[in-house]
Amino acid sequence: MIETDILVVGxxxxxxxxxxxxxxxxxxxxxxxxxxxxxxxxAEIYPKKPIYxxxxxxxxxxxxxxxxxxxQIEPFNPGFTLGERAESLEKQEDGAYILTTSxxxxxxxxxxxxAAGLGCFEPRKPPISNIVDxxxxxxxxxxxxxxxxRGQKVVVAGGGDSALDWTIILADxxxxxxxxxxxxxxxxxxxxxxxxxxxxxxxxxxxxxxxQVVGLQGDxxxxxxxxKHKKDGESAKKADSFIPLFGLSPKLGPIAExxxxxxxxxxxxxxxxxxxxxxxxxxxGDINTYKGKLKLILCGFHEATLMVQSAFKHIYPDKKLxxxxxxxxxxxxxxxxxxxxx
Length: 342
Known about the structure:
Blueprint: E1 2-3, E2 6-9, H1 13-24, E3 29-33, H2 40-44, E4 50-51, E5 60-61, H3 62-73, E6 79-82, E7 86-91, E8 97-101, E9 106-109, E10 111-114, E11 120-123, E12 153-157, H4 161-170, E13 176-181, H5 190-201, E14 206-209, E15 211-217, E16 224-229, E17 233-238, E18 241-244, E19 248-251, E20 262-263, E21 266-268, E22 281-283, E23 288-289, H6 297-315, H7 326-329
Parallel strand pairs: 1-9, 2-3, 2-10, 3-6, 10-22, 12-13, 12-18, 13-14, 21-23
Antiparallel strand pairs: 4-5, 7-8, 8-9, 11-19, 15-16, 16-17, 20-21
Helix pairs in contact: 1-3, 1-6, 4-5
């Protein structure tokens, strides 16, 4: 059996940063994630997508952010159980928990930190009868590497941030990009909408509104799509790739059976320390909910920091926690610098 101080369910960016904050307090972390690699959605779904709201980084690719987080926690040597889903959770007489994974791995810890993002998720697929026939043969629900589409004719469907952002990125890579949206207005950030419209005006992309893709054609691989227009009937468009970006359908999975207070598929927490209604169990990142919640990575970093402080007190109720700036205490193996003022 594996034993640790904090068992982190989910190895996305917020979970990984937990290991850094825990390491500063000499607490050990072990991760469980159903994905085969650390990084959550940033690594599995959009590693090449730029992120603009990480402090100190005007722009950083999602995959690079994960690489940096892994380097940051390396001195603390966290453990990883990957490719296994967190299943059952049992509380022991000593107050600790034993988590059993989908493959029977057992991990014991006094503190559980749920950082599972959206939980178990699958892409929302458009109602096209033969779409399954073209999956991995021209139909992709996520973009892992935009270079795959270099020189292609690409049709993107959707009206949210992902559809807008990827349209902007693919405009410089694909031979032709067409964005199809069933409405005239978009749900994404205004800045992204403006960029898309500017690209359309410059003739670098096509934007088709009040329309949706209703059919796919091809002999083995995708060759064209059928677009149904609200006013002008149907038209065919050549396409090497069709990328419907309608978001993910999240499910908590087995976590929903752990006795936690849940609202709209999210775990309720106390913003004092992001604890749940079950002592010793915390939830951080996209999987939690509270008044004023913002689903941003930088907010998850803040939640992880406060959560770890509380976790230390839960594990060592009789010990005094002396918090110091990292510039003062340093990190084992790395030099400490003297701050200008403390």
